[in-house]
Design brief:
Elements (H helix, E strand, L loop, with lengths): L2 H8 L14 H6 L10 H30 L4 H27 L4 H24 L5 H26 L2 H33 L4 H26 L19 H6 L2 H37 L8 H26 L1 H8 L1 H4 L2 H15 L3 H25 L6 H32 L5 H37 L1
Helix pairs in contact: 3-6, 3-7, 3-8, 4-6, 4-16, 5-6, 5-8, 6-16, 7-11, 7-12, 7-15, 10-11, 10-15, 10-16, 10-17, 11-15, 12-15, 14-15, 14-17
Amino acid sequence: MPATDSAAATGILDPAPEPSLPTRPLERMLRLFSDVREGEGPRLLALTLNVFLILVAYYLMKPVREVLILAQPGGAELKSYAYAAQAALLIVLVPLYGAVAARLPRRRLINAVTALFIACLPVFYMLAERGVGVGLVFFLWIGVFSLMVIAQFWAYANDLYTPAAGKRLFAVIAFGASAGAVTGAWLSGRLIQVIGAHALLLAAAAVLVLSLALFNVIDRHDSQRRPAGRPTDDPPEKAIGGRSAFALVAGNRYLLCMALVILLLNWVNSAGEYILSAIVKHAAEAQIAAGLLDPADQGRFIGAFFADYFQLVNVIGLVLQLFFVSRLVKWLGVPVALCVLPMVALGSYGVAMLLPSLAIVRWAKTAENAVDYSLMNTVRQMLFLPTTREEKYKAKQVIDSLVVRSGDVLAAISVYLGTTVFALNVSQFAAINVVLVLVWLAASVLTGLEFHRRTALSAKTAE
C-alpha cells in the first residue's frame, strides 16, 4: 500500500480535501455525527470506547468519595477546603509528571501512570473496609486522577491526529466521555445496592484495566501502520522532552492565553454554581416561610431540584455533542467556536443580574453547562492540536489540572469574600461574573487567533 493510502487508513494524514464518500458501513454510519472518512472508523471508535471506560471508572468512584469524606469528622467542611489542597498538591505532581515524561516514551508513560492509579484502588478498598479514615486522602487522590488521567488521554489523542483530522473527529471522541459519565453514574447507583460502596473501587479498577489494555492495542496498531515521512513528529518510541512543564507554559504566548481561558472558565462556572445553589436555597426558605413547604422537606426540595437540573444538563449536552458540535466546529471554525461559551455565559449572567429569579438562573446555568460539557469540552481539546508533543503531554497537565483547580480556588475565594466581607446578593455576584466573562471573551479571541496562526504554520510545514 502506498504511504499516502496507509496514512489515510490510519487517520494520521488527511485524505484529499474533497474525499469521496466512504464505502464501508462503519464510516457511513459515523458520518451521521461527523465528517468521518474512509478507514478512520475503527481507531475512532476504539478511542471513543477508551475514554468512555475512563469516565465510567471515574463515576464509579465518585459516590465512594462522598461516602468516605462525609464519614470523617467535619467532612462537609473538608470538602470545601479540599480543592485548595488539590491545587497545592498539583504544584508538586505536575513537575513530577513532567520529569517522568521527559524520560519515558509515550506508551510507557501512559502505562506507568495509569497502572499506578489502578494499583492504589485495592489499597483504598482494604483500608476503607477496615475502617481507616482515608476520606480526605481519597478525595485528593480522585481529584488528581480526574484531571491528570483524562488530560493524558487527550494528549494522546492530540498526538495521533493532525489539526485538520482532529477538528473533524474529536466531537465523536468527546461523546464517548459524555456517555461514559452518564453510564458510570447510572451504573454506580445500581451496583452500590448489590456490592456496597467500597467495592465500587474494585469495579472501577477492573474498568481501568480494560481501558489500559485497549490503549495498548490502539498504540501498537498505530505504531505498526504509522507512515514514514513525518519530519515534524517525533517517533512515539522517543522520550517526550526535557523542558519543565511550567517553563513551557510561561514561555509560550499561545499556552498562556489558553491557560487564561481555562482559568476564567472555571472561575466563572464555579461562581455560577454558587449563585444557583444560593437562589435554590432561598427559594426553599421562601416556600417554608409561606407555609408551602414543610421544614423537614427542605433537603428533599433541594435534592429534587438538582436531580432534575443535572439530568436536563446531561441530556442537552449529549444531544449537542452527538449531532451539533462537529457541525458547529466545521461551520464556525475553532476560533469562533471557542467564543460561543463565553457569549452564552455573558447572556446568562447578564439576565441573571437583572432578573435573579430561580427560573431565569436555572435556565441560564442549564444553557451554560450544556454548552460547556459539549462544544467547549471538545474545542478546548482541539486547542492542543497545533502543539508539539512536549507541549501536549507536559503543558496540558499544567493547564488541565493545576489551572483548572486554580480557577475553582479563585471562585471559592470570591464567594467567601462576597458573602462574609461584602455581603453581596445574587445580582451582585452575577455582575462580577459578567466582568469576568468579558475578560474571558477577550482571552478567547486572542487564543483563537493564535490557534489559526499555528494551524496555518503546521499546514505549511506538512507541505
